[in-house]
Amino acid sequence: MSTVAVIGLGGMGSRMARRLLDSGHELVVWNRTMEKAQPLVELGAIAAESPADAARRAEAVIIMVTDPVALQEVIEGPDGVAAGASEATTVIQMSTVSPAATSRLQTVLEPTGAGLLDSPVLGSLTEVASGTLKVFAGGPDELVERWLPLVSVLGSVIRVGPIGAGTAAKLVANSTLLGILGVLGEALAVAQQLGLPREVTFEVLAATPIAAQAERRRPAIESGKYPPRYALHLALKDANLILEASGTELRVIEAVREWLAEANEASWGDKDYSALLAWMLR
């Protein structure tokens, strides 16, 4: 077993940390608001004083933060991960960020001699709790192999190439999530406008390529309740990352981004991103 630090204890990070702790790893944790660390400390984790302190204490440092700005804040500066990292450290970056942020992370870590895995994950709260995430592992083969038992506690590992490939894979995957949600929302809106009963609409959708997504979203649509798993404001952040990184025209993602931005401005940002369907049907 290894000594692992988890930086960022939001919905995803805290559940990752709990799985690692339950699997027998020694756990060091740090979060900007340290009260989020307390439940894990009560279970045996060690609370670090800073990201640098966490890195000094651990062999592997998993980072799960909100966006590129948050990543830079926990990596750089006198209290950042890089200040506490050494040749004995491997940083496993699992947040959804931009290619530029991943490149900057690699540059900042290089003088420390620390290893880096660019390994964002696909899935949300249910998947991380059950250990069924998809982990897009980017980085040197020997480093991926070394930490495969650790990251496999979180889900199945898909090797995608060198550093940078993990970030790219996550943005590609999220583009499909956002695109399908937009297609489903428009299909429901067309059915509603044409007077097709909701039950019949779902029978029709069950015969289409988006059948699985329609069935998955049906309880939320019919109840009007969207339990938060992947916050709408984070989906908006990811849409912006995809558009900024692509370098090409993405009309579908641009349309979904506009809907997300409208809903976010209407204070829907903390709802689950699938509440976009309700926004499109309002």
Q: What secondary-structure arrangement, pairings included, does this model have?
A:
Blueprint lengths: L2 E5 L3 H12 L3 E5 L7 H5 L3 E2 L3 H7 L2 E4 L4 H8 L5 H4 L5 E4 L5 H11 L5 E4 L2 E2 L2 H6 L2 E6 L2 H11 L3 E7 L3 H29 L4 H8 L5 H13 L8 H15 L4 H18 L7 H6 L1
Parallel strand pairs: 1-2, 1-4, 2-3, 4-5, 5-6, 8-9
Antiparallel strand pairs: 7-8
Helix pairs in contact: 4-6, 9-12, 9-13, 12-13
Oligomer: single chain
User: Major beta sheet, specifics?
Assistant: 6 strands, parallel
Radius of gyration computed on alpha carbons: 20 Å
Structural class: alpha/beta
Shape descriptor: elongated
The pLDDT mean sits at 96
Strand coverage percent: 5-15%
Low-confidence stretches: none
Tally of contiguous helical segments: 14
Instruction: Tally the beta strands.
Output: 9
End-to-end distance: 51 Å
Give the key terms.
single chain, 282 residues, alpha/beta, 6-stranded parallel sheet
Descriptive notes:
- This protein is α/β, with parallel strands linked by helices and 282 residues long.
- It contains 14 helices and 9 strands.
- The protein has a 6-stranded parallel sheet with strand order 3-2-1-4-5-6, sandwiched between helices. A 3-stranded mixed sheet has the order 7-8-9.
Give a concise summary.
The protein is α/β, with parallel strands linked by helices and 282 residues long. It has helices at 11-22, 38-42, 51-57, 68-75, 81-84, 99-109, 125-130, 141-151, 165-193, 198-205, 211-223, 232-246, 251-268, 276-281, and strands at 3-7, 26-30, 46-47, 60-63, 90-93, 115-118, 121-122, 133-138, 155-161.
